[in-house]
Amino acid sequence: MKYSTSLLSAAVVAFASTAAAISVSGAAEGFAQGVTGGGDATAVYPDTIDELVSYLGDSEPRVIVLSKTFDFTGSEGTSSETGCAPWGTGSGCQLAINANDWCTNYEADAPSVSVEYDNAGTLGITVASDKTLLGEGSSGAIKGKGLRIVSGASNIIIQNVAITDLNPQYVWGGDAITLNECDMVWIDHVTTARIGRQHIVLGTQADNRVTISNCYIDGESDWSATCDGYHYWGIYLDGSNDMVTMKGNYIFHTSGRSPKVQGNTLLHAVNNYWYDNSGHAFEIGSGGYVLAEGNVFQNIAAVVESPIDGALFTAPNDSANQACSSYLGRACEVNGFGSSGEFNQADDSLLSKFEGKNVAAATAYGDVVSSVTANAGQGHL
Ligand SMILES: *[C@@H]1O[C@H](CO)[C@@H](O)[C@H](O)[C@H]1NC(C)=O
Questions:
Q1: Where does the record locate the signal sequence feature (predicted)?
Q2: How does pLDDT run across 272-289, given as a tens digit for each residue?
Q3: Per-residue pLDDT tens for 336-378?
Q4: SS3 sequence, the chain?
Q5: What's the CA-to-centroid distance between 324 and ligand 1, angstroms?
Q6: How close is the Cα of 363 to the center of ligand 1, in Å?
Q7: Which structural domain, as residue segments, surrounds residue 315?
């Protein structure tokens, strides 16, 4: 009897110390290197959606652990309105909510349609500075609402969380993760799926230093702006002074803006895996500076959309890739392609922008497919 009691206490102690020890796995590489989020704050486990909103938005440094799905669907009611159908009314086409009079101002020729959507999806949860949002195992999820890191927030880690089901049938139905006017943000092992608008969007103000790593951007959807089951609104990187590292991400089944890069944005896309895209992956507007190396593009109709108005270095061959050494401290890695369009531009003038910055390491593209498919997304820490 005594023996089994002490075994039980030992088990209780072990469980308690495991629960207290949950913490961020690994560390950010690239531009957001050094981000600490909520640091060593005692972990809190929200139980309700209101507690989650409160922990994310208050002014305390926090480690917030999600051990279940927080479902916001229905929590703010629904709206029934007149919207529009810019891509037609076919069953696979997204319709648009008339948000900010978008239909009226920009799609005046599109047929009017009735739309009914969930209000919670349309605006994400505010995330304040010094937060770590961490999913436990494969159970941390937020459904029906996204996250917004805006208005001067900094030092934030989001790891091992799924964000899903934001009015996927409607453009303007919601963005999964919004950044605008922030600094030092690390988004890691996040899965986004069935989203109305952007999976990840960096708005027009400065977003400074951001790392997006090991995420699974799942563009498979029953409704799409290209009416083909491939989500158009993937990753939108705008901003007046943005440096974004994208490493180890799995960008699947999209048809556009995956990513769109413009404003004044330096993007280092390294060791990502793009698979199965019916339109374009990169769209590079004025002020987009893109170094893409060590990635794999498989079944990507247009790896980059024409014209390219910004600057692009695609790490084309070993001799051209030596130009990276002066600024990144190493040569760049070539990309790998299968059944994909052209991606060949060697504007090495943008490489000087990497000088003195924290730059993610690169491996040869050969291991990218196996490592990304095994590691990317929530539940794959
Ligand atoms: C390497 O790429 C550069 C830039 O596109 C090109 O000028 C050069 O001819 C290429 N070298 C080889 C060996 O293919």
A1: 1-21
A2: 999 999 999 999 999 999
A3: 999 999 999 999 999 999 999 999 999 999 999 999 999 999 9
A4: CHHHHHHHHHHHHHHHHHHHCCCCCCCCCHHHCCCCCCCCCCEECCCCHHHHHHHHHCCCCEEEEECCEEECCCCCCEEEEEEECCCCCCCCECEECCHHHHHHHHCCCCCEEEEEEEHHHHCCEECCCCEEEEECCCCCEEECCCEEEEEEEEEEEEECCEEEEECCCEECCCCCEEEEEEEEEEEECCEEEEECCCCEEECCCCCEEEEEECCEEECECCCECCCCCEECCCEEECCCCEEEEEECCEEECECCCCCEECCCEEEEEECCEEEEEEEEEEEECCCEEEEEECCEEEEEEEEECCCCCCEEECCCCHHHHHHHHHHHCCCCCCCEEECCCCCCCECHHHHHHHCCCCCCCCCCHHHHHHHHHHHCCCCCC
A5: 14
A6: 21
A7: 61-73+125-375
